[in-house]
Design goal:
Strand order of the largest sheet: 6-7-8-3-9-10
CATH architecture of the largest domain: 3-Layer(aba) Sandwich
CATH class of the largest domain: Alpha Beta
Largest sheet: 6 strands, mixed
Radius of gyration: 24 Å
Distance between the termini: 39 Å
Structural class: alpha/beta
Strand content: 25-35%
Bound molecules: adenosine-5'-diphosphate, magnesium ion
Order of helices and strands: EEEHEEHEHHHEHEHEEHEHEEHEHH
Number of domains: 2
Length: about 325
C-alpha cells in the first residue's frame, strides 16, 4: 500500500504550550482514516497543519508525493477540506457555490460544469440546484459543503466532524455518501470525537490525546487488543441482596459495574469465570436469569487507553501541563 500522507515527528507549540508532541503516522492511499480524541487533544491543530493553514514548530509532512514544507501549493491542489462548520455562501445557490469553489481552484468552466452535474446528482441535491444555501436544512447544507470539498477531485479529502450536530437520518445518508466517495477512489481523513462515526466508517483509527498518538489500528484490532473490556454480564433475580464484594473477589474479575439488576464483571477470561459464577449462585441460592459475554466496544478501548471518557476539555489538559 502506498502512503498518501506521511507525518514525521510533528510538534506544535502555541507560545509555551505544547499542543502536539512528536506525532508520527501515515495514511494509506484509498483508506478512510480516523483521527479520534477528546476535545483539546490536538486534532484540529494537526488538520490545520496538514491543510497549510498553520505552520508546525518542527516535523515533516509528505502528502500526495510532495513535501508540505517545500511545495505547499502542489499539496493544496490535491487535497480538499470540509471544515467543522458548514461554510457555503448563504446568498448563493448550490450551483453558484460549487461554481465559485471550482473557480477558486482555477478549474476550467467546462470542467467545473460537468463536475457540478456529477456532484449534485451524487449528493442528491439536483432538486436544490438553484436554491440559495440560506434556505437549506442543516443536513443539506452539510451535503453541499462536502460536495464543495470534492469539486477539484481531490485525492485526499479532510472532513472535520462530518456528522456532528445532524439528525440521525442526515447523518446516515452522509456516512453512506462518504463511503461511496471513498469507494470511487478518494482517500478520506476524518476528524471526530464521535466513537460511532470512527467505528462505522474508518478502516484505521488513530487515538490522540494530549498531543500524542496513543494507539493506531483498525477498529476490530483495537477492540481485540483491549484487555479489560471483555465482560460477563449477569441479570439476577435479587441483585439487591448480593454482596458485590463477593463478585469482585471471584477469580479473574477486575472490576464490577452494577446497574439496574445487572452486574457487569470485567475479566480477561470469561471462560474461567462462567463456572465460578454458576457455583457462586448455587451456593448463595441466587438465580442467574441471563448471562452474556460482552465484547469490547470502541468506547471501552478509548477509556482503557486514555483513562477517561470524552468529557475532558482543554482546561484539564492545561492544569496537567503545568504540573509536568
Ligand atoms: N491558537 C491557539 N493558541 C493557544 N492554544 C491553542 C490554540 N489553538 C489550540 N490551542 C490549544 O491546543 C490544544 C489542542 O487544540 P485543538 O487542536 O483545537 O484540539 P482538538 O481539535 O482535538 O479539540 C488545546 O489545549 C487548545 O486549547
Ligand atoms: Mg477540533
Amino acid at each position: 500500500m502506498k502512503n498518501i500522507v506521511e507525518v514525521e515527528n510533528l510538534t506544535k507549540y502555541y507560545k509555551k504550550f505544547r499542543a502536539l508532541n512528536s506525532v508520527s503516522f501515515s495514511v494509506e492511499e484509498g483508506e478512510i482514516f480516523g483521527f479520534l480524541g477528546p476535545n483539546g487533544a490536538g486534532k484540529s491543530t494537526t488538520v490545520r497543519i496538514l491543510n497549510t493553514l498553520l505552520l508546525p514548530t518542527s516535523g515533516r509532512v509528505f502528502m500526495a508525493g510532495h513535501d508540505l514544507g517545500k511545495e505547499p501549493y502542489e499539496v493544496k491542489a490535491r487535497i480538499g477540506l470540509v471544515p467543522e462548520i458548514s461554510n457555503p455562501y448563504l446568498e448563493l445557490s448550490c450551483y453558484e457555490n460549487l461554481l465559485f469553489t471550482g473557480r477558486l481552484f482555477g478549474m476550467k468552466n467546462r470542467d467545473i460544469r460537468s463536475e457540478i452535474d456529477n456532484l449534485l446528482d451524487f449528493f442528491e441535491l439536483e432538486s436544490k440546484r438553484n436554491v440559495k444555501a440560506e434556505f437549506l436544512s442543516k443536513g443539506l447544507r452539510r451535503r453541499l459543503t462536502i460536495a464543495m470539498g470534492l469539486i477539484n477531485r481531490p485525492k485526499l479529502l479532510f472532513l472535520d466532524e462530518p456528522v456532528s450536530g445532524l439528525d440521525i437520518q442526515s447523518a446516515r445518508l452522509i456516512k453512506r455518501l462518504i463511503r461511496e466517495a471513498n469507494e470511487k477512489g478518494t482517500t478520506i481523513f476524518i476528524t471526530t470525537h464521535q466513537l460511532n462515526v470512527a467505528n462505522d466508517l474508518c478502516d484505521r483509527i488513530a487515538i490522540i490525546q494530549d498531543g500524542e498518538i496513543k494507539a493506531l489500528d483498525s477498529p476490530d484490532r483495537l477492540k481485540k487488543a483491549a484487555k479489560q473490556s471483555q465482560a460477563v454480564e449477569i441479570h439476577l433475580d435479587k441483585l439487591k441482596d448480593v454482596d458485590i464484594k463477593e463478585l469482585k473477589s471471584l477469580k479473574t474479575v477486575e472490576r464490577v459495574d452494577v446497574n439496574k439488576g445487572k452486574a457487569k464483571l470485567f475479566t480477561e477470561h470469561p471462560e474461567i469465570l462462567y463456572p465460578l459464577l454458576i457455583s457462586w449462585a448455587e451456593k448463595n441460592n441466587i438465580r442467574i436469569e441471563i448471562m452474556n459475554t460482552l465484547s469490547p466496544t470502541l468506547e471501552d478501548v478509548f477509556i482503557e487507553i486514555t483513562g477517561k471518557g470524552f468529557k475532558k476539555g482543554p482546561e484539564g489538559q492545561k492544569k496537567r501541563h503545568k504540573k509536568v
